[in-house]
């Protein structure tokens, strides 16, 4: 007879794959936000309640895991942007909240990257911002002459500041820095 410790999780096999993946993405978002992009992957696996083998089965590299988190963030932004009643400012507010939660993901916005895994989501973001900017009703007070790349640059500037800000003061710093940047973006 084999005894299994009560603290050890039973292996649920392939039926657990979707849940494990979701748990890993949620844990990565939390751990990267608190500990930075270089946080130990073992901490992410522990936080998700899975072993490292499960983590690597779903995400063979740190970049693959970060891209999965970024993909979820981008999906949230796309869902908001699809509503014609939202403005560019509404979309930027969500992006700023995401960057504030985890400045580590701003590298994923780099539209000059040669990596197609990074380039595709960055192009999607630029396209949705350009679409919102093209409609005067959705422009939301953003100064004429500014484009999507200008907005992404402003968010990248915020992220650069936040990447060097301790977690305890990140929210306050983000609010102040974004208010300064927004002053230059609005009419």
UniProtKB/TrEMBL annotation:
Which keywords belong to this entry?
DNA-binding, Plasmid, Transcription, Transcription regulation
Q: Identify the DNA-binding region of this protein by residue numbers.
A: 40-59
Kindly give the SUPFAM superfamilies that the UniProt entry links to this protein.
Answer: Homeodomain-like
- GO MF assignments: DNA-binding transcription factor activity; transcription cis-regulatory region binding
Start and end of every HTH tetR-type domain? 18-77
Q: Note one Pfam family from the annotation.
A: TetR_N
Q: Which InterPro entries match?
A: Homeodomain-like_sf (IPR009057), HTH-type_TetR-like_transc_reg (IPR050109), HTH_TetR (IPR001647)
Query: Is Transcription regulation there in the keyword field?
Result: yes
Query: Does the UniProt entry include the keyword Transcription?
Result: yes
Annotated PANTHER family: HTH-TYPE TRANSCRIPTIONAL REGULATOR BETI, HTH-TYPE TRANSCRIPTIONAL REGULATOR RUTR
Q: What is this protein called?
A: Fatty acid metabolism regulator protein
Provide the species name: Nocardia farcinica
Q: Which gene encodes it?
A: fadR_11
């Amino acid at each position: 007879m084999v005894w299994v410790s009560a603290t050890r999780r039973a292996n649920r096999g392939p039926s657990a794959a979707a849940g494990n993946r979701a748990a890993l993405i949620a844990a990565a978002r939390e751990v990267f936000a608190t500990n930075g992009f270089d946080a130990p992957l073992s901490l992410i696996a522990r936080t998700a309640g899975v072993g490292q083998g499960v983590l690597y089965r779903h995400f063979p590299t740190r970049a693959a895991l970060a891209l999965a988190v970024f993909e979820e963030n981008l999906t949230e932004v796309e869902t908001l942007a699809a509503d014609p009643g939202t403005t560019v400012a509404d979309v930027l507010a969500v992006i700023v909240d995401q960057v504030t939660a985890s400045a580590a993901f701003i590298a994923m916005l780099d539209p000059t990257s040669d990596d197609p895994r990074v380039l595709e989501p960055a192009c999607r973001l630029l396209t949705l911002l350009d679409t919102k900017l093209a409609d005067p009703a959705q422009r939301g007070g953003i100064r004429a002459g500014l484009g999507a790349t200008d907005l992404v640059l402003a968010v990248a500037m915020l992220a650069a500041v936040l990447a060097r800000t301790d977690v305890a003061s990140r929210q306050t710093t983000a609010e102040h820095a974004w208010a300064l940047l927004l002053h230059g973006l609005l009419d």
